[in-house]
Design a protein that fits this description.
Length: 131
């Protein structure tokens, strides 16, 4: 298994650099033929959401669609597919960012009674308590 950095997924999704995008395409095709998976960490997912929003102007709907497509890609192996799916559900049902959604999902997946934060934007999220 090979781990992917955020910039690889950015090239795959935006194709903003033709030469690098072509390298990524070849990498994916080569490994798809061998039924290999790529590892995508939670940190990469958080960075990807931030980059797509801040650098490329993706809105919430586009980010949500992108993460749904990534989760359905059999070539990608995630740190935790369950956490990704839960984070995606939190992101779609709230107004918090994907990184915060990922934090909520990780705490819930670990069975935490609650997540304590000072972030007022998270006050309506289940099992999140403002301190």
């Amino acid at each position: 298994m090979i781990a992917l950095d955020t910039n690889i997924l950015v090239r795959l999704l935006t194709r903003d650099d033709d030469k690098q995008a072509e390298k990524v395409r070849i990498l994916f095709e080569t490994h798809a033929e061998n039924n290999d998976q790529f590892f995508v960490s939670d940190v990469v997912l958080a960075e990807l959401a931030w980059t797509l929003e801040r650098t490329y102007g993706f809105d919430r709907a586009a980010i949500s669609k992108t993460f749904r497509a990534l989760a359905e890609n059999a070539t990608l192996g995630f740190q935790s597919r369950e956490v990704l799916q839960l984070a995606h559900a939190v992101f779609e049902s709230t107004k918090i960012g994907f990184a915060d959604s990922l934090i909520v999902a990780q705490s819930q997946a670990r069975g935490c009674a609650s997540l304590v934060t000072f972030d007022k934007a998270m006050r309506t999220v289940p099992k999140v308590d403002l301190l």
